[in-house]
Design goal:
The complex is a heterodimer of chains A (about 180) and B (about 375). Chain A is of the alpha+beta class and about 180 residues long. Helices cover about 30% and strands about 15% of the residues of chain A. Chain A has two domains: about 10-150, Sufe protein. Chain: A (Alpha-Beta Complex), CATH 3.90.1010; about 155-180. Chain A has a three-stranded antiparallel sheet. In chain A, helix 4 crosses helix 5. Chain B is α/β, with parallel strands linked by helices and about 375 residues long. Chain B folds into two domains: about 5-10 and about 260-380, Aspartate Aminotransferase, domain 1 (Alpha-Beta Complex); about 15-255, Aspartate Aminotransferase, domain 2, CATH 3.40.640.10. Chain B has helices at about 15-30, 40-55, 70-85, 100-110, 130-135, 160-170, 190, 230-235, 240-280, 305-315, 325-330, 335-340, 345-350, 360-380; strands at about 5, 65-70, 95, 115-120, 140-150, 175, 195-200, 210-215, 285, 295-300, 320, 320, 350-355. In chain B, helix 4 links the parallel strand 3 (about 95) and strand 4 (about 115-120). The longest helix of chain B is centred in the C-terminal third of the chain and has 39 residues, at about 240-280. Classes of the chains: A alpha+beta (about 180), B alpha/beta (about 375).
Chain lengths: ~180, ~375
């Protein structure tokens, strides 16, 4: 991956998955559905699962987001397809990003969506099977850091310097970071 | 396949006449304008010629009121920080608008760290500042007003003359960021009545890395760069003569060709807007319907995100710009689009299409055709798009 201080390019694997995304679409009567992110946050991903014999027989996605978000969705579905639910639960945001040969720092938050959506979809299936009815999570209109469990460290979107999760401004460039990183 | 550049705002192509002048200067005019010998004289003459050409383009009363810089960003930093530092004894309050370029906004943010106060006036749904709001924002501590001439994302042109009448009456310096206007549409500093005005050569077919600041004589300004006596003591450092020579030729061509360029662009703009409306449903055209740059169209395409559109168009050799948060690197929707009332999701799918005298009808036709299929591909992928 070519990384400059102020410009970052996607790996060829990312570009391949962005240009030819695998498993786009919805599954009718899906056994599990997971939706994360929201349009106000900049990206949103929905994962549909067809489950047979405790394994993912089919998986499809719909994503609103940048090239990285689409590539993450595509790679995730490739990785999950055919796996047992227990195996699929082990897919992490980091392993998706690694399979894509890395993502630009500013785009790591996109990879956070992928595995989260998959895990939510699996949980949805398991809940249904167990007869648990959970209230449908409401779409928040704010970017929520808590969603990104297991995600990468926060970096200032303006100068790429690493900052703490609750930093109000970047120690590198002085930019205010309210709800930005 | 021909490359279709619809991203002129990132950098204009450099016109052949400009290239030739710069190449000739690289070969023969590498001297330092400060040197008291013949090579220095040659350089100083070329520098003065460029200054005169630039003064003509913005109708500056004297060429000496032009300060050459490294481009729009430096000019803006120089104007704002220069006035703030020079007049800090008089006050600490600066007035701006909600839709300024980051070069203005982040300069002001930096000054806030030094205890300057900033008031930012809102714009209407077309992105226009109301001069009355500027008048209301002024206090007895106000030392500078900075409002852009035209907006780089939506093209809306501001009522600079009216605002300048207010600031002149109160004797408050007025800086106008005219980077996207100078060389594109008529900008006349005398008519506008501004004290400082920033411009950049790469917006009128000159090279990147060179621009300037008009400084009305009598304006208090601290230089950002101290050292030699170049640029009338306002910008130390040996001049980027090759770039400045390119700027000068580009300025001459802009004076000569402005009307024909504007007519050509306006015609393409109308065609493009009509074509977008006919080709893609659920879109917004951003900016003022009339008081807007002739070479810029901003369109928000619902349900999809701009970076994806840019990358897919790039595959088809069509270059455009986006104001989506994801593509900008800053994970924040464009402050300009939010200021005119777009929500975060719609702001995400915004393209800035900019063009020039080389752009043809066929370019626009092909762009529209490819865009239609790209939008459909991305919408078919989007959970927000229900068909």
């Amino acid at each position: 991956m070519l990384v400059w201080e102020d410009r970052t390019m996607y790996s060829s694997t990312v570009m391949d998955h962005f240009k030819n995304p695998r498993n786009v679409g919805e599954i009718e009567n899906a056994d599990g559905i997971g939706e994360v992110g929201n349009p106000l946050c900049g990206d949103m991903m929905t994962i549909y699962l067809k489950i047979d014999n405790e394994a993912i027989q089919d998986i499809k996605f719909k994503t609103f987001g940048c090239g990285a978000a689409i590539a993450v969705s595509s790679m995730l579905t490739e990785m999950a397809k055919g796996k047992t639910l227990e195996e699929a639960k082990k897919i992490t945001n980091k392993s998706v990003a690694a399979a894509l040969e890395g993502l630009p720092k500013n785009k790591l938050h996109c990879s956070n969506l992928g595995a989260d959506a998959l895990h939510l979809a699996i949980q949805d299936y398991e809940d249904k099977k167990a007869g648990i009815v959970r209230p449908k999570p409401k779409r928040e209109d704010k970017h929520d850091h808590q969603e990104h469990e297991g995600g990468e460290k926060c970096t200032c979107p303006y100068c790429n310097i690493e900052v703490t999760d609750d930093a109000l401004f970047c120690t590198g460039c002085g930019h205010l970071l309210k709800e930005l990183h | 396949m021909k490359l279709i550049n619809l991203d002129y705002i990132s950098a204009n192509p450099i016109l052949p006449e400009v290239q030739e002048a710069m190449i000739a200067a690289l070969r023969d005019n590498y001297g330092n304008p400060s040197s008291p010998h013949q090579l220095g004289d040659l350089a100083a003459e070329a520098l003065q010629k460029a200054r005169e050409s630039m003064a003509r383009l913005i109708n500056s009363p004297s060429p000496q009121e032009i300060v050459f810089t490294s481009g729009g960003t430096e000019s803006i930093n120089q104007a704002i920080k220069g006035v703030a530092l020079a007049t800090s004894q008089k006050g600490n309050h600066i007035v701006t608008s909600n839709i300024e370029h980051n070069a203005v906004l982040r300069t002001l943010r930096r000054l806030r760290m030094l205890d300057y106060k900033v008031s930012s006036v809102a714009v209407d749904e077309n992105g226009r500042v109301n001069p009355t709001d500027v008048a209301k924002a002024l206090t007895d501590q106000t030392i500078l007003v900075t409002i852009m001439h035209s907006n780089n994302e939506i093209g809306t042109i501001q009522p600079i003359e009216e605002i300048a009448r207010i600031t002149r009456e109160k004797k408050i310096p007025f800086h106008c960021d005219a980077v996207t206007s100078v060389g594109v549409i008529p900008v006349d500093v005398r008519k506008l009545g501004v004290d400082l005005l920033s411009f950049s050569a790469n917006q009128f077919y000159g090279p990147s890395g060179v621009g300037g600041l008009y400084v009305r004589s009598g304006t208090s300004l601290w230089p950002l760069l101290d050292g030699g006596v170049q640029e009338n003591n306002k910008r130390a450092g040996t001049e980027n003569l090759i770039g400045i020579i390119g700027l000068g030729v580009a300025a001459e061509l802009a004076v000569r060709d402005m009307d024909s360029r504007m007519n050509h662009c306006l015609r393409l703009k109308k065609k493009l807007i009509q074509g977008l409306k006919d080709t893609v449903d659920d879109i917004f055209i951003n900016g003022h319907p009339e008081l807007s740059l002739p070479n810029l169209v901003s369109v928000s395409i619902k349900y999809i995100e701009g970076e994806g559109i840019v990358l897919m168009l790039d595959e088809e050799k069509i270059l455009v710009s986006t104001r989506s948060a994801c593509a900008a690197g800053a994970l924040q929707a464009s402050h300009v689009l939010l200021a005119i009332g777009r929500d975060f999701a719609d702001a995400q799918g915004t393209l800035v299409i900019t063009f020039g005298q080389e752009t043809t009808d066929e370019d626009v036709d092909r762009f529209l055709k490819v865009l239609k299929s790209v939008v459909q591909t991305l919408r078919d992928m989007s959970p927000l798009y229900k068909k």
